[in-house]
Write a structure and sequence with these properties.
The protein is α+β, with helices and mostly antiparallel strands. Among the domains are: 31-314, Transferase(Phosphotransferase) domain 1 (Transferase(Phosphotransferase), domain 1), CATH 1.10.510; 348-505, Rossmann fold (3-Layer(aba) Sandwich); 508-586, Serine Threonine Protein Phosphatase 5, Tetratricopeptide repeat (Alpha Horseshoe). The protein contains 33 helices and 19 strands. The strands form five sheets. A six-stranded antiparallel β-sheet has the order 3-4-5-6-8-7, with helices on one face. α3 runs antiparallel to α5, α12 (383-398) crosses α15 (473-488) and α23 (625-637) packs parallel to α25. It is globular and about 90 Å long. The termini are far apart. The relative contact order is 0.04. Residues 28-42, 198-215 and 330-362 have low confidence and may be disordered.
Length: 826
């Protein structure tokens, strides 16, 4: 039976408390409570008084809807606690008292570092209370009141709160009052969810009077504001409000009166946080937007999903579901633009005719960017395929020596972007862009691409749709590449022409598995390598003559070796075997020559053949930034710095927004002893990718070389933390107290060396700490271990200044260089 609003006459579903149109109350206010602070007279406990024979009252902390909270000392267990008391005038209300008890039972079942610990529930002297952990710090609300939080701090706090909610939801506990005032942040930036006073156990009866609505107004979900049945998704909404508040410094739903706030929650869409703070990345805006979907079915369905998105964004990865949402928003904006453009169609036609009549001569196009192709299926599970096709087109175009082609990492940031193409082109410093869409249907692939000249304005040079069987997908890529080469008027060399006309067919299942392997390998994580190997092996099984499958297998083992996940004695032979098989099947793949160069440089120390592999990879694909970045490092180990800097600078032109390459450029500056520039470069990277372990490590080395020892120590602590080496952080502190900076480094090295007796730890990194500490003998001892296992970092001892400065004159060092066949120091 519908309920008609007495104010606007809008008909609402039965059981609704507020009108869905005007937000006016549909029942009399009697018995309805939209929880604000319950102001009730309560007798204060005196400072120094003792309760229940063990709790000594220290001070009152605050009062709320479910009572008053005191700070007290548990004299029995010698700890500081918070005591939360139910107002005595409510203790005779059975339902309220039962709810208070339920709070204790539900909260006590939760044991998590991001949830305030509840110790016990007790009654004494007609006082009902809960004993819980006392948290030193301030509420998140107070932090926000001081201004919007920094991006990395906000993401960290959000992830911690989500982890606490994840634990609660897993045990069937819904908080129902998540808000910034109910989240404490300690001095060490640890977030703690407080006050499960409104929590309910899933499946149990709601212990409130019929019609009452719990939760603080500004953070209420629409279903909560209407007094409807709620589940864990109401907590997700409330966390969305907190996220909005943290990132923007203001609440998404506001009003002068309670009713206007409720109206806003039910009917209005908040202004995007990316409009309020331009530095907020679009993926963050999408997380907040999805958490604040008014329909619970369109919201995040589990807190786990929201948490995964936050972690991915923190790691620099745009989650697949968010990519879909960004693309939909982009398509909507374009449709609107087309609609508006239609209203001025006649004028546009006249302008176009004028341009045609003017016959502006074409300008040379020598640089291009392939923007992420749109996945027309709308299925996020197929994004790997769209990404793979984008990569292939970049790779194919990259083989044209007359073109500068921007690499994958730098273009992928524009997925779903609504920036004008001219602005994107300006940021990437290119003359033209390729954009389009891809759709896989069964064993067929359809690609729509268009080439747009953006030297002066957006001018469509060419567009075409290709529809081919999956078996001919490589042929299709070559056709697209040749067409773009023709329209840009670049000339192909004889070898390039031959390469683009000699392409064999592929096994659809093998190719699909290969693309999935590439997707997982790109994560550069142990789990990513594991999944990638499974898919590459599947591709090899489906087609034993598929060269790219073997190239992928080789890349996995090379990656595991470089990251120190396995011993070189296991990784190098497997990587080389797969790479040589790929080379046997197809010697025209730049990827194969690159992985062979990596194996021969950092696995076999075969410098002559390594350089030939680097050079061959560059010949095949002059726009392959990975090859050039690491070739620059090879050249530094060969004492050819001028050539090295040419290669890294070209890398930065090809992939300007890749944080890894930006850090590698900083390393090259370090090799050149341009320390101030190196420090600035590393610090700029960390602004984009906070807590990036590799960058922090190299920044610490730059500070060390500048003799900025305090900064070096603090940065070393940060990179230990980023790598999860907490014992190292403690060791630094102990060593510093005993013997200052060098003592700190020496102590950390000793702890790391001790751990290496039970698990494999890169001996080069331990040696590096001993070098910084000035401990020559221990440094040589660890370097000898690195030599024995052919550690892939060993060639860098002739490039990093700290090794050369401390050990360069030592006969032992010169002997080590001789045995590694490295050039002598100049």
């Amino acid at each position: 039976m519908a309920i008609k609003c007495p104010k606007c006459q809008h008909e609402n579903p039965e059981g609704t408390l507020f009108c869905g149109k005007c937000a006016g109350p549909l029942k009399s206010a009697e018995g309805i409570s939209i929880t604000k602070t319950l102001i009730t007279p309560i007798e204060s406990l005196q400072k120094g008084s003792t309760l229940a024979g063990r709790y000594k009252i220290i001070e009152e902390l605050g009062r709320g809807g479910m009572g008053v909270v005191y700070k007290a000392e548990d004299t029995k267990l010698k700890r500081t606690v918070a005591l939360k008391f139910l107002p005595p005038e409510l203790t005779h209300i059975t339902e309220v008292k039962e709810r208070f008890l339920r709070e204790a039972q539900s909260a006590a079942a939760l044991d998590h570092p991001n949830i305030c610990t509840v110790y016990e529930f007790d009654e004494t002297e007609e006082k009902t209370f809960i004993s819980m952990a006392y948290i030193e710090g301030q509420s998140l609300k107070k932090k926000i009141d001081a201004g919007p939080l920094e991006l990395d701090e906000a993401i960290s706090i959000a992830a911690q709160v989500a982890e606490g909610m994840q634990e609660a939801h897993k045990k069937g506990v819904i908080h129902r009052d998540i808000k910034s005032a109910n989240i404490m942040v300690t001095e060490k930036s640890q977030a703690k969810i407080m006050d499960f006073g409104l929590a309910r156990i899933s499946g149990t009866t709601l212990l409130t009077k019929e019609g009452s609505t719990m939760g603080t107004i500004a953070y209420m979900s629409p279903e909560q504001a209407r007094g409807q049945e709620v589940d864990h998704r109401t907590d997700i909404w409330s966390l969305g409000v907190v996220l909005y508040e943290m990132f923007s410094g203001q609440l998404p739903f506001k009003g002068e009166h309670d009713q206007s706030v409720v109206y806003s929650i039910l009917n209005e869409k908040p202004k995007p946080i990316t409009d309020l703070r331009s530095e907020i990345p679009m993926p963050i805006g999408q997380v907040v937007s999805k958490a604040l979907e008014k329909n619970p079915d369109e919201r995040y369905q589990q807190i786990d999903d929201l948490l995964d998105d936050l972690k991915s964004i923190s790691a620099g990865i745009v989650p697949e579901e968010i990519k879909v949402r960004l693309r939909k928003a982009k398509r909507l904006k374009r449709k609107r633009a087309i609609l508006y453009a239609g209203a001025a169609g006649f004028l546009i036609i006249m302008v176009v005719l004028g341009l045609i009549l003017l016959k502006r001569p074409p300008e040379t196009i020598d640089s291009i960017a392939v923007l992420p192709l749109e996945n027309l299926t709308g299925d996020a599970q197929q994004d790997y395929f769209a990404d793979g096709v984008t990569d292939e087109l970049i790779g194919q175009l990259g083989q044209i020596s007359a073109l500068r082609v921007i690499s994958r990492q730098s273009v992928m940031q524009y997925r779903g972007s609504d920036k004008p193409l001219t602005e994107i082109a300006r940021e990437l410093n290119v003359d033209a862009v390729v954009e389009g869409s891809v759709q896989q249907v069964g064993d067929s692939v359809r690609i729509r691409v268009q080439l747009i000249d953006v030297i002066h304005e957006e001018r469509n040079l060419w567009g075409q749709t290709y529809d081919q069987a999956m078996t001919d997908v490589l042929v299709m890529y070559n056709e697209v590449t040749r067409a773009i080469a023709d329209k840009t008027q670049v000339k192909l060399t004889a070898e390039e022409t031959t390469r683009f006309t000699n392409t064999r067919r592929v096994n659809p299942q093998a190719y699909d598995a290969y693309l999935k392997g590439q997707f997982h390998w790109g994560k550069l994580t142990p789990e990513g390598f594991d999944m990638a190997l499974q898919y590459f092996e599947l591709a090899r099984k489906e087609d034993p003559n598929f060269a790219l499958a073997y190239a992928g297998i080789a890349m996995v083992w090379a990656g595991r070796n470089q990251f120190g996940l396995v011993l070189p004695s296991e990784a190098v032979p497997k990587a080389k075997e797969a790479a040589l098989k790929a080379l046997e099947l197809d010697n025209t793949l730049a990827e194969v020559h690159y992985v062979l160069a990596a194996i021969r440089t950092w696995g076999e120390w075969d410098w002559e053949r390594a350089e030939k592999s680097f050079q061959r990879a560059i010949e095949i694909n002059p726009n392959y930034p990975d090859v050039r970045a690491y070739y620059s490092h090879f050249l530094f180990t060969m004492h050819r710095p001028d050539e090295a800097m040419v290669q890294i600078e070209r890398t930065m032109e090809l992939d300007p927004f890749n944080p890894l390459f930006q850090s590698l450029y900083g390393v090259d500056l370090l090799f050149m002893r341009r320390y101030d520039e190196a420090i600035e470069q590393f610090q700029n990277v960390l602004k984009t990718v906070p807590n990036h372990g590799f960058t922090l490590h190299k920044l610490a080395l730059a500070f060390h070389q500048k003799q900025m020892y305090e900064e070096a120590l603090e940065t070393t602590k940060e990179y230990f933390t980023a790598w999860g080496f907490e014992e190292g952080v403690k060791a630094l502190a102990r060593g510093y107290e005993e013997a200052g900076y060098t003592g700190a480094m020496n102590n950390a090295a000793e702890v790391w060396e001790e751990l290496s007796r039970v698990t494999y730890i890169n001996p080069y990194l331990i040696a590096d700490l001993y070098v910084i500490a000035g401990n020559k003998d221990k440094a040589f001892e660890l370097l000898e271990k690195g030599f024995e296992v052919r550690n892939p970092n060993m060639p860098y001892i002739v490039a990093f200044p700290e090794f050369v400065d401390l050990l360069g004159d030592e006969p032992r060092f010169k002997d080590l260089l001789r045995r590694m066949n490295l050039p002598e120091l100049e």
